[in-house]
Design a protein that fits this description.
593 residues, alpha+beta, 7-stranded mixed beta sheet, 12 helices, 24 strands
Length: 593
Amino acid sequence: MFIDFIGLTLYFGIGIVLANVISLIVTKASKWKSTIGLLVFELVILGLTLYVLLPSKTLSTVLWINLLGAAVAAGFLVALGSVSVATAKVIRKGKSRKEVVQTTGRSNDWSGRVLGLSIVGMIALFAISSITQLTSTDEVYNTIPLKTEEKAEVLTSAKETPIAIAPETAKRKMLQKFSVIPNSNMFTLDGITAQVVNGEYVYVATVEFNGFFKWMKLGEVPGYFIISATDINAQPEFVEKPIVYTPSAYFGKDAARKIYAAFPGFAATGKINLEIDEEGNPYYIQTLYKEYGVSGRMNYNEFKTAVLNATTGEVKVYDSLKAPSFVDAPITSAAANSINEYFGRYSQGWWNQTMFGAKKDVKVPTENGIYASGQITPMMDTEGQQLLYFTDFTSGDEDQDSALGYSLINARTGQVTYYRDSKVGIMDSDGAISIASKIYPEKKWKASMPVLYNIDGVPTWIVSLMDSKGIFKKYVYINAVDNDIVVDADAAQSALDAYRIELATKGSNNTSTDASQLETIEGTVSRVTIVAAEAQTVVSFLLDKDKTIYSVTTNNSPMALFLKEGDKVSFKAVVTTEAKAATIENLVIEGLE
């Protein structure tokens, strides 16, 4: 890493080198010792500054630091020349004194020019960056890989589409098991990330050194914690795998600085995340990007991914799409958050989102997530294989409680899918959090991690309830259109079944959004019950050798009112092996067609 930082220092120090080289040429190397000494001093100071501050490696930042370095170097050279002149006047006599004064004068003249040009360059860079930031708004927006959909992701089974518990619950369990770590008092539990390992959705948490002297004493972290992200009864496991390169280490073992120094041409965004491969080996991951010109903005379709082997220290960079298969989030939550912010703000250009603009289609991400300062919630896709980032958007008007839609960002491809059903107004996650928090007011449970799904055609918020210690208590399913329909249960599948029955009982004219998921079911009715509600009548029944409760409203199937035991029926429904209830469509009763 030392060699990498030397290269990085020269990359940021081109301005310093040029200013000193010009001085050497002008003075014909007559003061080469002092100039070289000054150059080395300036580069050392620059290198230390880079190591401590880790400034962004965007093109605009590199240019700023180079211009500033050239100006500072020129200023030092002028000061050095003035000292030389003063010394010559006091000490030297005759021709030697005259030559020193003339040579130093030329050097100061050129150094002054370099200083002036550096200042002019900084002014020009500021102007160009400011203008580019405005004029490139549409071009940067077009780099976002975007598609839109009307309906939410369909949830048919809590097993096929795992519903994650809140990370606070997982972290609480890990802290309770912390004593299993050798010398546990020398470590602290740090970040927690969601990922898929050997087909299971899990949380992985890093263990970090609790200070400089702890690192000096031990030199490596003994391992990490892992726990199921969907099983509320799961217990964390501490995996003993030595982690030498970690964010809490120092000098050459600092994981963040090792990645930073390895690839000078790419800027980094967000913190580094720990991910593990299928054999349990630890790696640190960070998203890299190229700036769009000198605008200060990301180019959203050219992400890179740095992968650091936390044991050997080997660092590789990949196109995010070609990152190793075990890396579930080549595009980290910080990059996803930037995409959401830009997408919500600039869809109609720069002027539209200002205080003087109409703010047409301006959307503000809510802050009810767990990543990126609360704006991102990780979740699995419907196949349970791809990590997605969920964010819902609101108008920013505190008096409104309606969602303007939500986005799912693929953590590997960066593909943004924006869901907005303009025909149905839905409650935003702030409203869902408020409702869930008031179910058990006496217990003072905290609502967390709201995610929106399509359940039997109904947009539905799924929220986790936790106590004050972060221990998971219940799942809450809330109808996002009619928030009078609220169901809670200890397990995700139980809550889903109860919610489906509640939808059928209270009535919903929505139909499933994807006809390809419907299957035709035939059988003989063994039990039937009719529940008359104010809005409509619901008919629920069982089939022979089938314990699934099927429900249909008479608004959708008027002939269902005449259903009786022994009738042979056929209909369409979305049913899985875990489901205990389902709403149906296209009910046909033999003899009553």
